[in-house]
Amino acid sequence: MPSQRLANVASSPVRDLLALIERPEVISFAGGLPAPELFDVEGWRAAFDTVLSGAGARRHLQYAPTEGDLRLRGHIAARTTRRGLPTRAEDLLVTTGSQQGLTLVAAALLDPGATVVVEEPTYLAALQCFSMAGARIVPVPSDEQGVDPAALAEVFERERPELLYLVPTFANPTGRTLGRARRERVAELAERYGVWIVEDDPYGELRYRGAALEPVASLSERVIYLGSLSKIGAPGLRLGWVRTPRELRSALVVAKQAADLHTSTIDQAAAAEYLSVADLDAHVRGLCAAYRERRDTMLGLLPRVLPDGAVWSDPDGGMFVWVTLPGGVDTARVLPVALRHDVAFVPGAPFFAGRAEPATLRLSFSSTSPERISEGMRRLGEAVLSAGVAA
Amino acid sequence: MPSQRLANVASSPVRDLLALIERPEVISFAGGLPAPELFDVEGWRAAFDTVLSGAGARRHLQYAPTEGDLRLRGHIAARTTRRGLPTRAEDLLVTTGSQQGLTLVAAALLDPGATVVVEEPTYLAALQCFSMAGARIVPVPSDEQGVDPAALAEVFERERPELLYLVPTFANPTGRTLGRARRERVAELAERYGVWIVEDDPYGELRYRGAALEPVASLSERVIYLGSLSKIGAPGLRLGWVRTPRELRSALVVAKQAADLHTSTIDQAAAAEYLSVADLDAHVRGLCAAYRERRDTMLGLLPRVLPDGAVWSDPDGGMFVWVTLPGGVDTARVLPVALRHDVAFVPGAPFFAGRAEPATLRLSFSSTSPERISEGMRRLGEAVLSAGVAA
């Protein structure tokens, strides 16, 4: 009864899993959630109160332009420019989270049967989104430096795709970052083959060591850059944005109209107020300090709790560590054992568009305190041991 | 460069028009906007303040389940049940405005080439949305009692469509309401031919005379009912909902995940709080009293300002009056004259999926005070006269 294009798309196993592990005794490394104890609740409360108390209050409750709140777009443009990507307010389309940005790009660019190239593994909900658009997804291998440019060149030559989807900085699920030289190479390839790149960058500001890399979008006009307040502000507001190449702007605005007319006026106004008043840079520094400690705790314990032969990524930022267990285990079969030990992770297979590597799993360190991470790592070690995983 | 399916979809002429007429001296009957001076600003301010001050504040800034806030869904379910449509919280999926409900239904039910039947004329953004899904749209004539059941039966027999889209109560753009006998007939036809009905009901509570009719959804299981807070609360929050038949539920939830993960957590929490504390029924009675006066003012003046031969709908509620001018005029050519007279309306042609009737136009009375309506009607009469329209 559902449409063909939906029949091939499963509900997100991550979201289904999150629903299962709401027992408070479970230490969950499964979600990709920011730490709620670090939310600037008072800052947000004050921002909503200000915009609903002032002269513009009625305007903030009314229908609004599809492109988004101009004051908010001005703040985001200035922030994006400071991060090395020159941007004007009119280049930005505010979206209902950057997830919506993906859907709009799919609607605006992909006809059924279009080819989308992704790094392997990649963000699950992006795979869902492209599948729903009826696209054919072609994976390209990645390593510790991100997607492999030589393999990408081959695929571009062979497949002539419409779109390349990348999370170049602190990727979901791997935590990996595309290196500087590769960024240049990927941008060149996109130009040469006339492929649009979607650069999905929700984590880029959460860097715990090393110097920031320039966005791929600063290297080519063929990049659609997606940003978000979810990881640096609060995800509950569902505020993201698309920095749109000029020739795609009107198509994306039409897609946005059809999707939800516009993003919440009041949330946009509150975010504009927040960005005027709060020191988001200081807030992000605080997030980075806390997440760095969590990352270090997790990475410090992994060698002690996992069996010989296990390997994992060493992320410079973001929220995720990507683990491969030894001995040809399927982590989907380790998960029930882990849940009996009151610890959770996400099995890696759903993040693959092509041939899955079932021995992989994703751990998130962002929403768990260092103490709970220590206890959770101990439980994970026990679970892996009791599931019989060995090199 | 944009996808084929988007290449056929224009930006909404209504939204484009709204951008043009922001000059304060223009009296606009063009938008379908609720009156901002009637927003319960203090009630909404207090609701946001409460949910961001309480123990749950951090939760209201975090990611949340795709289906929506359970407290909000409980309130909506109770309200829907009181209106004659028995509904449980778990039947509801909260959407980012009811516009998103349309997009999700299209994603979940329509493959490219699927057939969608609409009453003629109908809501413009629904046409956009079905076009973007690659559907073939087949219009069915309507009259003062709404869609014509005999014509509908013929089209169902001939076309075997997937979906029928209706705004059965105080329709956009006509203001017309589908009569009771026709509701039963339409529900029967949907059952017999296995067609899904989308009942889009944003205006149903804004009734100025006569008794409420039961929702079509109360007459058949084959109805996907869309509701919204936009017209009775505040549109800026972008809060709508889909009452989903059981067999479509999981498909719609998957489509919602891909669209934006979930609707703004904080807006949902504030709305749940508002519905707990405020007397929305009393607020709606206030809206109805104000809008009734505006409707009466407009309908009282139309015979005086329009030339002989003009006809218009006589809506029992909602926001719109649908006018047909005499003499074979194209209202798209009257609009520039009207704008020179500082008055605006929406030409009717874009609301037609089939052969347009260019002599039609849509007037909205909801967001203009009775005094301004009087002045605006005077200007409209002058504009129509100076454009040379005559019987």
Descriptive report:
- 2 copies of one chain form a homodimer.
- With 391 residues, chain A is α/β, with parallel strands linked by helices.
- Chain A folds into 2 domains: 141 residues, Aspartate Aminotransferase, domain 1; 238 residues, Aspartate Aminotransferase, domain 2 (3-Layer(aba) Sandwich).
- Chain A is 43% helix and 15% strand.
- The first copy, chain A, is built from 14 helices and 14 strands.
- In chain A, α6 crosses α10 and α8 packs parallel to α9.
- The model of chain A has no long low-confidence stretch (mean pLDDT 95).
Quick structural overview:
The structure is a homodimer of 391-residue chains. With 391 residues, chain A is α/β, with parallel strands linked by helices.
List keywords for this structure.
alpha/beta; 14 helices; 391 residues; Aspartate Aminotransferase, domain 2; 15% strand; Aspartate Aminotransferase, domain 1; 2 domains
Please identify the top-level CATH class of the largest domain in chain A. Alpha Beta
Order of adjacent strands in the largest pleated sheet of chain A? 2-9-8-7-6-3-4-5
Summarize the largest interface: chains and residue counts. A-B, 78 and 78 residues
Assess the beta-strand content of chain A as a share of residues: 15-25%
Question: CATH superfamily name of the largest domain in chain A?
Answer: Type I PLP-dependent aspartate aminotransferase-like (Major domain)
Number of strands of chain A: 14
Net shape of chain A: globular
What is the typical, i.e. mean, pLDDT of chain A?
Answer: 95
Report the CATH topology name of the largest domain in chain A: Aspartate Aminotransferase, domain 2
What would CATH call the architecture of the largest domain in chain A? 3-Layer(aba) Sandwich
Which structural class matches the secondary elements of chain A? alpha/beta
- Quaternary structure classification: homodimer
Count every helix of chain A, treating DSSP H or I runs of 4 or more residues as helices: 14
Tell me the major beta sheet of chain A.
8 strands, mixed
The secondary-structure element order of chain A is HHEHHHEHEHEEHEHEEEHHHEEHEEEH
